[in-house]
Amino acid sequence: MYEFIEKLVDEMKDKIIGYRRDFHKYPEFAWTEFRTASLIAKVLIDNGYKIKIGKEVINDKYRMNIPSKEELDKSYKRAINQGAYEDICKLMRGGYTAVVGILENGDGPSISLRFDMDGVRIKESEDYSHIPFKNSFSSNNDGIMHACGHDGHIAIGLGVAEVIVKMKKYFKGTIKLIFQPAEEGVSGARAISESNLLDGVDYIISGHIGIKARKSGEIICGTDGFLATSKINAEFKGKSSHAGVAPEKGHNALLSAATAVLNLDAIPRNGEGDTRINVGKLIAGSGRNVIPGRAFMEIETRGETTELNRYMENYAERILMASAEMHDTHVNIKCVGKSISASSDDELVKLIKNVANNIKEYTIIREKDSFGASEDVCYMMNKVQANGGKASYIMFGSNLKAEHHSPMFDFNEKDMLCAVKLYSELILKIAADRDV
Ligand SMILES: [Zn+2]
Ligand SMILES: [Zn+2]
Predict the structure, then answer these.
(1) Ligand 1 centroid – CA 62 distance (Å)
(2) Given this model, what pLDDT does residue 435 score?
(3) Which of 19, 237, 273, 408 is 20 to 30 A (C-alpha) from 38?
(4) Cα 183 to ligand 2 centroid, rounded to whole Å
(5) How far is the CA of 18 from the centre of ligand 2 (A)?
(6) What is the pLDDT of residues 292-305, one digit of tens each?
(7) Taking the alpha carbons of 24, 6, 419, 92 in that order, is the dihedral positive or negative?
(8) pTM for this model (two decimals)
(9) Beta-bridge partner residues of 206
(10) Closest to 181 measured CA to CA, from 91, 117, 230, 122
(11) Which ligand approaches the C-alpha of residue 120 most closely?
(12) How deeply is 429 buried, as exposed, middle or buried, from its count of CB atoms within 10 A (0-12, 13-18, 19+)?
């Protein structure tokens, strides 16, 4: 059976690479993945999957950091112009860009695989040594790029979708292929996790190309050490006034923000474990001779555990409020993204390792490593584990051409094939029909 899968996947090489290149060419931001999700839905429908889409799998209460109506409308029109299926897009209007393919294949375990599908706000390199540019499949959408590898994740997901339909008679169970919007900024997974999609799911498995697995042929079967994180926007509102005639009549929002920045970086380290803080953006003031009436900041906190991140977030909020008080301004604090920590189940990690051992392309098989960054799939992992299920997160090795989130980011496309084999064979391992 495994030989059958290997052969099938090898024959799909051009198709899988073709998917990746097409998605790479048309990257979309968080909650605007209309074209991407509609094309995915079409492939799933064509392969006989039952589809759940948009509000069916999104709990609106937990959607975070939704773009403005203008941006949503603009992205929607662009998607249609770039070949999206309009009938499917209609079901996602307003930024409900999640799609799930469900295959009900008799009594057996319920297994979910999760793939993310959004791009990063970065301009893609136009250097001839950058293969997507050289081979004419670099981003057509200015200022957005698949610079994290999510285009590869989608292609892997679609490859798996096709393979498992062809091995239907060899396993029993329910498969849910979850294509999640808005992973960048960790604002998408929770809304799906808080819908009823994961009820009764026994296994949730996800993964990422690269991160800590930097060589083709390498695989890390389980991941721990996801940093819990909060993405916070803070807006200080003060009062503008003449900087020469009446500076005392102003309420200086820039000063509040500057005070906050210096003190945010001064939050004490925590003896319980690793923490992070970053103020990544600060815009303030309107002109040289005006007391600044407004300041806006983008901040993120992280922690090795959910509790450590809460420590950072609470401390940061206190500093923001005190900084407002100090210069008599008002601060509006908004959480626009959040993720918790998670860990992979040893039993499932061992199973993944067994499967990887059977795939000849995998020559460096590592059991576990820590992620060292944040991933909102942790909400889904925690949800399934809380219901008695198992979770694991795999890092798929690839010779990366540059760091994630950089304009030259690229990976070795052949490595997607190993991932398709791994997921497909893992499903078979978990849900094999013993009667066949
Ligand atoms: Zn990323
Ligand atoms: Zn990513």
Answers:
(1) 20
(2) 65
(3) 408
(4) 7
(5) 20
(6) 999 999 999 999 99
(7) positive
(8) 0.93
(9) 114, 393
(10) 117
(11) 1
(12) middle
Nearest to 303 by CA among 334, 326, 269, 332: 269
Distance (angstroms) between ligand 2 centre and the Cα of 435 equals: 39
User: pLDDT at position 436, please?
Assistant: 60
Q: What pLDDT digit, counting tens, does each position of 95-153 carry?
A: 999 999 999 999 999 999 999 999 999 999 999 999 999 999 999 999 999 999 999 99
Centre of ligand 1 from the C-alpha of residue 124, in Å = 14
Residue labelled with tokens 């791009």 = 119
**Two structure tokens written together for 11:** 């024959």
Q: What is the mean pLDDT of residues 20-33?
A: 98
Mean pLDDT score of the chain = 97
Protein residues near ligand 2, an ion, with CB under 5 A: 148
Strands of the sheet containing 173-180, edge to edge, are 50-53, 99-105, 173-180, 110-116, 203-209, 390-396, 218-224, 364-370
Average pLDDT of the segment spanning 255-283: 97
Angle subtended at Cα 232 by Cα 227 and Cα 237, rounded to the nearest 5 degrees: 160
Cβ-contact 167, 9 below 8 angstroms? no
